[in-house]
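Hi R.,

Here's the chain you asked about this morning:
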Amino acid sequence: MAKSAVREAIAQLRRGLSLLDGLPETRERKQQELDIHVTLSTALMAGKGYADREVAAALERANRLVIETGAVGTPLHFSVLYGLWASNFIGGAIVAGLEHATNFLSSAQSQPASGPLLMGHRILAHSLIYSGDHRAALEHAETAASLYRLEEHRDSAFHYGQDIGVSAFVVLSWALWHRGYPDRSARAVDRALALSRQLGHAPTLAHALSFAGGAAVFAHDVATVYAHGNDCVAIASEHGFAHWEALGRILQGWAEAQKGEATAGIALIRDGLAAAEATGTRSSKPFYLALLAEALALAGKMQEALAALDDALATAAVSGARGWDAEIHRLRGELTARLPRPDPAKAEDSFRTALAIAREQGTRGYELRAATSLARLWREQGRQDEARDLLTPLYASFTEGFDTADLKDAKRLLDELT
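And here is the predicted structure, written out as tokens:
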């Protein structure tokens, strides 16, 4: 595991479990079994995906053994609690994931060590981003990042599958972007990537590259998405990280489509979606379906793109992953306005819905994007004053990120409206 050789680790750990079968039922045997199951679940999460059935089975057995061996409150117990959060959350049960994260943080608050507390805030922030509470997410993400100490938490990757500081910084980057701080978001990503390369732990680096690619998608930085997607796929393929390889392919596909290779991009995204589904990964499906819709639209396949957005909203409604709803509705408005027979009224309804959701959820990044789309539609209808009144105060509320695509787009539109 220390060498990121997860295939070999899984084989040895399975062998260890089989040897335990021949030993008498003693407390020592149960403690050994708990240790093996926790290590095995970490290896399986890297090798087969967080929501794989074998991961869930190992965690369920480990959770029982925690009680039977009196290990409640120990590092092994927090590894199990993290695994239970991850398998539920990544598997698409966002409400259950929120509950697991809340319980984890509650348990961690009574511990003297800061590692569990950091992880509790991190997984709660992660869960809140996906469920669509971006204000609370940023508070927890900032707390998690502030608790990280390299020397104190150097061994955390072996308890949680990846370094807890890297995981805190990448979640912080997403939360910062949503709350309207794109430059701070980029700095958090840079810190996570630098730290992950310094640590030399392959699962941590794959984790960081995937999240960094997602942050670059938010910023619409195509070249960076392409680079991170390629690096993520390369390291995941080398080490057999099925989950991260699938997500890396989706990033590659979106970037390819944005670069003008829409057909190739669509194939990569669909390949990544199928591979992610095979690992049980469902929490990000609404987000990735929105990326597929963008690629389909670039290929001129508007009806297929709209169907992908409908699928994204339906998936989000079932899973509770509502954090992307504003952008999905905005994209639906954009595509509706570009149909052979455009429906401006329907497009406006989609933009208004996107704007309302973004404001409710506290994602200023998506709010700016939705406001820009609506203002552009109004300008085309000769409603310049309404467009200017909508966009001016929102743009003025941003204090950074003026070189990013969204703010440049909004500024160009404002200049045209004056």
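One quick note: The chain has a mean pLDDT of 95.

Cheers,
M.
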